[in-house]
Specification:
Blueprint (H helix, E strand, L loop, with lengths): L1 H30 L3 H9 L7 H13 L3 H13 L7 H11 L3 H13 L5 H15 L1 H6 L4 E5 L9 E7 L2 E6 L6 E2 L4 E2 L2 E8 L2 E2 L5 E2 L10 E7 L5 E7 L10 E9 L2 E2 L3 E2 L9 E6 L5 E6 L9 E7 L5 E6 L10 E6 L5 E5 L9 E8 L2 E6 L10 E8 L2 E6 L9 E7 L6 E13 L5 E3 L4 E6 L4 E6 L5 E6 L4 E7 L6 E6 L14 E11 L9 E3 L13 H16 L3 E8 L6 H21 L7 E7 L11 H7 L2 E8 L4 H5 L16
Helix pairs in contact: 1-2, 2-3, 3-4, 4-5, 5-6, 6-7
Length: 663
Amino acid sequence: MLSIMKQLFYLSVCVFFIQSCANKAAQSSFEKGQFDRAIEMYKKGLSDDDEIGNFQVAEAYRKSNRLKEAAPYYQKALKAGSTEQGLPFYFARSLKANEQYEEAEKVLQNYLSKAVGDKQFRAFAQEELDNLDQLEALESDQNYFRIKNLDELNTEFAEYSPVIKGSYLYFTSNRQSNKIYEATGTPFTDLYRVQTKGANVNARTLEMLDPVINHEDVNEGSMTISSEGTSIIFAKGNSGKATGTIEVNLFFTRFRNGVWTTPRPLNINDPESWDSTPTLSPDGKTLYFSSTRVGGQGGADLYSAQLNRRGRWVDIKNLGPKINTSGDEAFPFVSSDGRLYFSSNGHPGFGNMDIFVATRERGQITVENLGQPMNSHSDDFGIFQFDLTKGFFASNRPGGQGDDDIYTFVNDDPDLKIVNYSLEGVTMHKDDGGKEIILPNTKVSLVTLEGDVIDEAFTGEDGDFKFRVYTEEKYNLIAEKTDYFTTRKVFTTEGKSVDRAKLTEFITTIDFTTSIMMEPIVIEKPIVLNNIYYDLDKYDIRSDASIVLDSLVQIMQDNPDIFVELGSHTDSRAENEYNLNLSRQRAQSAVEYMVSNGVAPARLKAKGYGESQLLVSNAKSEADHQRNRRSEFKVLRYNPKDREDELEPEGNYDEYDRFFDGN
């Protein structure tokens, strides 16, 4: 009997040892992003009461975009007593993906009823619970979309991320790869194109893109192409090897001398993050993409970057909490009427990725689910319009050819009318003779009065800039150039909107024009501050003077590299010493006012000139005396950071680092 017990003991030790080794190997595969392999290894000998193993299997399914399959393993981990942060939230999300909405709601309510759990995940859970409350309304919404499976192109494999350029439809697929990507257990993806007329594809013309772009053991993902068709930005990565690229990054290639150049990574990539699903704005000057980089709202967020005059992508910005959520946002697309389409599983939707549209009007961004049939209980993503009523998207909904399929759509809304508002302008300055001339190579930003940057442009030699503007809004136009004062100008569309009900055309374009006059920074050059007046024999700041000084405060904030003198002058109708003291007190009062409004004291110097620098030496009229009684500021010191260098990271770049030639 003892011998049998010993044998059983040693057998259990061996089983435990083998299982422990297997779990270590599975964890190693998990950490390398080899999720499909990790799932297989964890499942061997997995018991219902293994809280760690079940949670890891669920996470591997979630991280490889198989949230439906994750649900039973999250449930087992929860029953086994797992206290992993985020488990109830992800379990509820997986139930929602399986259309088990009531069960998902119960899990979230139970989680939130207890005063435990990570603060951030509790906020995510409340957001998801609020989304579930809107599901009934989403299902009852009506629209005019019609969809059709593009069955002449789709296969049992994945086809997604459609893009049209010229007479070609570009897309991503794993239809021909013989190698398996260990994260998902599916073949590696490549980029293809096929000739098309609208939604009518000629399948006989199907071809894989150049071998310099596609590699058999690397995933090539979503792509975007420049308006002239000679520059491509695409997602690439996930070799699955320890020595290869684990994360996805953005690459670009150009068509030069009859061939595509070797793809190179964009400078905006975060090497520790997933950067993918790129798209260019219609003018090609803004790049939108999805990233998991630190500092976002939750999962993958949407970001933008601007193309500067040197052809480099700069000014990376998160699109903010109106667009991004605790879930994932990806596959952006900007239509020709300025609306941002994207896919998300964080906004109110049907369970997985849904397609949404963000519209800006009267200073507010509204996000709308496109509803059924565009969206389903499966993943719906990668929308692309080839005109304002027709386009493509991808979905893995039931009834398709296999995995992800490409669908066509038509919007038959009879009341659909498009109004585009644009602002065109030019940056100017005056030459030595006072003649107004173009000022080239200037950065211009379109900014809300609250300080949110809506768009940016880098002018060329013509000094021109152009922005899409929106109805009933007020903006600041801010122009920046090294050796010039940063200048702001107010522009408004308030009261300038057209009545859609009176429009007869499908598309109406309203153009506004403006110009921005910029002043060079000249050391020791006095600039008169108009309308800074003082009461007789007083030096306190009057309310009308504070308006001008507030403007000067803004100039100091916009130009952090300048150090100025604030000078005060009097007329000659009192004793010289009295005038000198009065002017000093007035200058000091102005400086103290500016300091109280946030300007660093070290950047300001007060100086009183009395009557020593009269503009009108023999003043006879009150107007002459007023000219002499003036306030001025002049730049004493200017320590400019090269703003163009700020926009372009340090380093030596050859011509292939630039997205466009010249620009």
